[in-house]
Amino acid sequence: MFTKQKLLLLAVSINAALILGGCGESTSSSSGDGFNNGPVSGNGTGTDFNQPALIENITTNVIASTYQEFLQKSELQQQAVELYCQQEIVSESVGGASSQLDEDKLSAKDSWRNAMNIWQQIEIMQIGPLSNDDNALRNKIYSWPIVSTCGVDFDVTFFKEGTVNGAPYDITKRLASRKGLAALEYLLFNDELNHSCSSASQPDGWNNQTEQYRKVVRCEFAGEVAKDINNNAQILVDAWQGTDGYAAILKQAGTTGSDFETEHQAVNVISDAMFYLDSFTKDGKIAAPLGLLVNECGSQACPEIVESKYSANSLNNIINNLIGFEKLLTGDNKGLGFIDYLIDVGDQDTADTMKADVQQAISSTLAYELSLADTLATDPDRVVLTHQEVKKITDKLKADFITSLALELPQTAAGDND
Amino acid sequence: MMTLFSNHSISSNLRHFSLKHLPSKSGIVASIKKSSIALAIITAVVFPTSVFAFDVNEAKEKEKSTFDERIQIIGHSDKLRKEAGSATLIGEAELEKFNFDDINRILYNVPGINIREEDGFGLRPNIGFRGATPERSKKITVMEDGILIGPAPYSAPAAYYFPMMSKMTSLEVFKGPSAIKYGPNTVVGALNMTTRSVPDDREGLFDVSLGSNGYSKSHIFYGNTLDGISNGNFGYLLEAVNMQSDGFKVLDGGGDTGFDKNDLMLKLRYDLTSKEFSQVFELKVAYADEKSNETYLGLTDQDFKANAYRRYAASQLDNMDWQHSQIQFTHFLEADKFDVTTRVYRNNFERQWFKVNGFKAGFITRDLQYILAEPEEETNALFYQVLTGTRDSEKEVEKIILGNNAREYYSQGIQSEIYWEHELAGLKHKFNVGVRYHQDQIERKHTEDVFLMQSANLISDGSEQVATTTNVEKTDALSIFMQDTINWQALDVTFGLRGEFLDSTYHNLKPGNENDWQKKTSRIWLPSMSVFYTLSEQAGILFGIHEGFIPTSPKEGLSVDIENSINYEFGARFNNQNTKVEAVVFYNDISNLKEGCTFSAASECGKSLDAEVNGGEVDVYGLEFSTSHTFNLNSSFDLPVSIVYTHTASEFKNSFESDFPMWGNIESGDELPYLPKNQLTLNVGLIADVWDLNLIARYVDTLAEASGTNVILEGMSTNAYTVVDLSFHYDIGASGRLYIKADNVFDKQEIASRRPYGARPGKPQQFFVGYQTNF
Predict the structure, then answer these.
(1) pLDDT for B107-117, tens place per residue?
(2) Which of A172, B5, B686, B737 maximizes the CB count within 10 A of its CB?
(3) Residue by residue, what is the 3-state secondary structure of A70-94?
(4) Which B positions 500-529 lie with beta carbon below 8 A of chain A?
(5) Does residue B67 have a pLDDT over 80?
């Protein structure tokens, strides 16, 4: 009996030891060069290109400095809008307009253009804090193409009343489509003082108010919007720089504990941002208004849907997208850029072609004599040419650029609208 | 977990050996080369020892009894079961009480099951055990007649094919250490469904029923066994089922939302008994198909409140169309001291699954789940209008993408197991050893088409169809298991060990991606131990521990770990014939929880279809309780009552951020999604001589739609609900019997889940009337 007990105990012990110790599990694999976007999860292109130096230059000398520049422009914008608004208030009290008012309003508009032009460069640098949470911070600063001018009209009145839905008005909690640079453009450049709501829900009695009342109330809200933009610009700069900033996370790629297993993955995050030129600039800003893609006008040239239609800043937006793209491509001539990487892997042709194509598109767009909306109405072929010029760049981006640098296409670029 | 629902009338069920459309001779030979054991088995099958002449009747009786046990895995004795490990049998008599077509409704009678309902009919069930993600039942091992039945259980375990329940005569659920025998997924358990066996004598059935929502079912089988053919008995069975419905959902603008399913099965059986051996050969050939106008698109909560059965116009072209075929060959051999059951099988599955994937990506990209979760958000509202057909597509990004996730699968193999008893060192041993060589493959040929919503109709935008995911995953798996049950006085101790040896390959078939491939080799040994201590003739206690495993898919790199766990259970069992009670406490210590992203989980998964993610350490624990008793009211009436209760709790043990759409930013202590804390099922019957009335009421607690924060559906859950089903049968003597059923008799409607995208209802109140006759 004792023997049986011992045997049983021995068997139990062996099995328990197996379980507690964990029986052997082993997995091994071999894979092709293209597996898991292969090189992205490995060491990139296999060359000794100094990827950390590229990351350092782009995060610091290109992106950080552009963000910083926008912060400064947004501060100037806030000041200019406040000055303009003070003149509107004076005009209301004295009962007439003044040349100072015109001057300050023009200055406010110029400040918006200056801020917007830098922002359009940042549009193509949406990385980390700007892309997190479905681009939440980006949308707070600039929500296009999601813009609700009717919503802005409502918020003008809510801000004036100081409450919304029974709670104190707080612009930080308002929808992105009712604030930011797009809302500010509408407030500064739109001379139509009646509200833009076509639906049953409209701001009560707004159209019955005096012109000057509406100008003052709008400019007061414009001041709040400009202040909010400046605050968000500061949030962006803070989230980017510093030891805990996103730039530092990118620079730490490939080190122990980093969010990125390899430096190449961090490089891929930057290249993802460059595809804005494809889906937004080429498709959204050019092809859609041209009618090459389905639009509200039924796939015809549709000047009403161009970006920044109140300020007629559409072409400047496109040009600055291209400038931002060029900065990433070249490293803004302050250090290594993607051009250097292409040359390093032996694709001098793509490096030269892309650089020349970007310069050609910029100079060609600068040569427009009319606004984008007016050109669409009078000479759509001119816009078709711009579309082709930008497409040359994005075609290279999606093919040779990605292939030579062993980068992964962003998901939104996988389906081709062309 | 126990034999509460055991059926005593189950006749011999065959374990099937599938060989479905054996691919080619070379394929078979290749398989055979993998295992010398398999070769030995094949030899035994093809060249059976031909020795006869002795008392055939006596041998047949013995053979039949052993064979029954080998086919249907759980024994159906009314005595106290001494097997350790949780195992539940739902027999034919139980299944006939409600004639459910929906596996979900049947499984509510099993403790420890968690289910996410999806289409209301159970066409594509989501079944999990003991907290395992129910998503497409991919974490459990699903078998038909003891054979893996998922389309590609190793390479792509999501069970998009699920057998028709109407042809099943019993259903078995294994959890805990008893699951170690059935791989590949051993973390929580296995489900085995048994088809009708070839009858010993002439037997047939005709069953027809009609119901609301254009429901109809026609079910017929006929079989017989002819004695004395070449020293053996030849039996056959032919069974056919058609089931269809117009659907209970109402499509905006009109259209069918129902389904039409067919299932045909032929079994040929040859019993051969000799002096030395008893042998059975069985061939099973089956074909099934389904065309269903199903969709992954649900509703906003507001629309659900207004009309839970509405379907948006954008889902008007959604359609599932599949065909499944199988062939299985079984050989059973029994001698005095051992018996061997061997099966060869092949299953083919092909599907076209055309459904709304989302809106075209572009400079505004909105996920369908987000649109339906927050339809009043300004931008979402615009997309919502397009989905519902109240506004035409006006922008490129408002075009609707319909994807056809066309796939072809096969699953084939050979498996054999042997039982023998032996006394060793004065202890009684029951050995059970098995081996399986299995191959499966999934080939994806996904495409996408672009549509415009115009006047509430989907119109092609004229662009060419685009190929998306185009790849193939394949696995060759050798599995071995061995169990030894040692009896010493009142103690039965079972040791088990399972080995899984996988060689898998992944290859991207998209032109230009020839270098996107991976070959992977995985090896694992999984031990188990269970103990049953008999307290008396009527009661005993059990304890079990086993290691669980779920492999990663062939295309997953080494950065994703296998799912691995140590599972414990402790319980007690009581059975005095008329009253049965079982209570089991379980604890699953999961060292890495693995999940996969599919469209059935979230539209967002379109970005990373079928990608797997690590969830780290997770604990799942709970109580499973079941009891049944039959009150003999008088000589004419019996009142059987049973209660099944499950309590489950879970928690992530680590904090992490995840892109998986059911998790977000997880904090340690967060619970798993879709795991109800409490579930209760009550069965009450009133049985008279010629009629019976049965009621089943089930309560399901709230289900969290997601875990963690910063995830769509964060903080949302379904409401707890109770659903009651009724059935009434009346025997009209030799003419057959009539039955009336009512599913969801009080027409209770709550959101079953908000996945894949949007709120979805369960089945509404539905009445059926049927007639059944045996001949």
Answers:
(1) 988 999 988 88
(2) B5
(3) HHHHHHHHHHHHHHHHHHHHHHHHH
(4) 506, 508, 513-529
(5) no
Pairing of strands B656-657, B612-614: unpaired
CA distance B599 to chain A (A): 16
Task: Sort out which chain B residues have CB atoms less than 8 A from A279's CB and list them.
Answer: 361-363
B517 with A32: Cβ contact below 8 A: yes
Local structure of B732: helix, strand or coil? coil
CA distances from B324 to B184, B288, B351, B354, B412 (A): 22, 5, 9, 18, 13
Considering chain B, what is the average pLDDT of its residues?
A: 86
β-strand partners of B431: B420, B484
Listing DSSP states for B48-67 in one string gives ------S-HHHHHHHHHHHH
Kindly report, residue by residue over A206-228, the tens digit of the pLDDT: 999 999 999 999 999 999 999 99
CA B380 – CA A28 distance, rounded (Å): 45
Task: Cite the beta strand spans of B97-146 per DSSP E.
Answer: 113-115, 127-129, 141-144
Alpha carbon separation from A54 to A50, A406, B515 (Å, rounded): 7, 16, 28
CB atoms within 10 A of CB B165: 21
User: CA-to-CA distance for A270 and A262, rounded, in angstroms?
Assistant: 13
Model confidence pLDDT, tens digit, residues B630-644: 999 988 899 999 999
Structural domain spans, chain B:
2-195, 203-774
* Confidence at B13, pLDDT banded by 50, 70, 90: very low
CATH superfamily, region B2-195: TonB-dependent receptor, plug domain (2.170.130.10)
Of A130-144, B466-480, B587-601, B736-750, the poorest mean pLDDT is in: B587-601
Give the per-residue pLDDT at B44: 34
Other beta carbons within 10 angstroms of residue A221's beta carbon come to 26
Q: What is the DSSP letter of B759?
A: B
Check: CB of residue B277 under 8 Å from CB of residue B51: yes
Return the amino acid letter for B741.
K
What's the CA gap between A194 and A184, in Å, rounded?
A: 16
Strands B310-311 and B250-251: parallel
Q: Are strands B618-632 and B656-657 parallel, antiparallel or unpaired?
A: unpaired
Find the Cα–Cα–Cα–Cα dihedral B629, B677, B87, B127, rounded to 10°.
Answer: 120
* Domain residue ranges of chain A, discontinuous segments joined by +: 51-240, 275-413
**Interface contact flag, B395 A295, Cβ < 8 Å:** yes
Q: Looking at the predicted structure, is the pLDDT value of residue B17 above 50? A: no
Q: Tell me the percentage of chain A whose pLDDT exceeds 70.
A: 90
Instruction: Work out the pLDDT band at B424, boundaries 50, 70, 90.
Output: confident
Chain B residues in contact with A147 by the CB 8 A cut-off are none
Angle in degrees, 0-180, between the axes of helices A211-240 and A180-189, rounded to the nearest 10: 150
The alpha carbon dihedral of A173, A178, A183, A184 has a sign of negative
CA nearest B35: which of B439, B348, B339?
A: B439
The pLDDT of residue B139: 92
The pairing of beta strand B86-90 with beta strand B259-273:
unpaired
DSSP tag of A24 = -
Dihedral pair phi/psi, residue A414, rounded to 5°: -65, -40
CATH architecture of B203-774: Beta Barrel (2.40)
pLDDT at B304: 97
Q: Angle A65-94/A211-240 helices, nearest 10 degrees?
A: 160
What lies within 8 Å, CB to CB, of A224 at 6+ separation is A159, A171
Locate B297 and state its tokens: 């698109």
B710 touches chain A (CB under 8 A): yes
Specify the DSSP class assigned to residue A243.
T
What ipTM was estimated for this complex? 0.77
